[in-house]
Amino acid sequence: MAVDVVSEIIINAPPERVAAYAGDPSNAPEWYINIESVEWQTDPPVAVGSRMNFVAHFLGRRLAYTYEVLELVPGRSLVMRTTQGPFPMETTYTWQPHDAAATRMTLRNRGEPTGFTRIATPVLAAAMRRANAKDLAALRRHLETGEPS
Length: 149
Known about the structure:
By secondary structure, the chain is α+β, with helices and mostly antiparallel strands. It has a single domain, classed as 2-Layer Sandwich (Alpha-D-Glucose-1,6-Bisphosphate, Chain A, domain 4). 28% of the residues lie in helices and 42% in strands. It has 4 helices and 7 strands. Strands 1-7-6-5-4-3-2 form a 7-stranded antiparallel β-sheet. It is globular and about 45 Å long. The N and C termini lie far apart (33 Å).
């Protein structure tokens, strides 16, 4: 059973600004509640083929994994994938104008759990949905008010 979680938010900032901030993996620990650190394996800025090591905590477990950027359309979309661990995952960000001054950001996480995590797929999907909502709210708060997330 696959996991495919799609979350959206409207952010009162132009798409270029939202994409520049959210699409820079170095900023992830500032707005992703569960991400502890990001270390570049390749030189920034983000580009197709970029690789970054992430350390996160999710459902009480420490996770260390490497993302590789598969697709990048500056200001519009970013697709990254990890093939490691019990839950290989692809993460997609898209940014679209919502109106003259706002952005509709979509965050999609999808993957095929393996091993023991396969049994917990429904719980995993629900936890991801809750975490994504919190992360996107923190991102919006940061971009709209300048407050730390």
